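pls design
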C-alpha cells in the first residue's frame, strides 16, 4: 500500500479551483431561487458573464487604439 506523504506536496490547479468555486456559486443561487430553475440571465449574473464580456471588450478596444 502506498500512502501519500503529509505536507508540502499538494499541487494546486487554479483553473479547477476556480471552476469549483463557480459551481458552488451556482448551487447557492439555485438553492435561493424562488423558481424551479435559474434563468439564463440569472446564471450569467452569478457567473459574472456580462462583467467579463465588458472587460474583454475594453481590452480589445485598448489594443485596437494602440495600433
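designed seq:
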Amino acid at each position: 500500500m502506498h500512502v501519500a506523504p503529509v505536507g508540502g506536496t499538494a499541487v494546486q490547479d487554479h483553473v479547477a479551483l476556480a471552476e469549483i468555486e463557480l459551481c458552488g456559486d451556482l448551487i447557492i443561487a439555485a438553492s435561493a431561487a424562488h423558481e424551479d430553475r435559474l434563468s439564463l440571465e440569472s446564471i450569467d449574473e452569478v457567473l459574472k458573464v456580462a462583467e467579463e464580456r465588458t472587460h474583454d471588450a475594453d481590452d480589445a478596444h485598448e489594443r485596437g487604439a494602440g495600433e
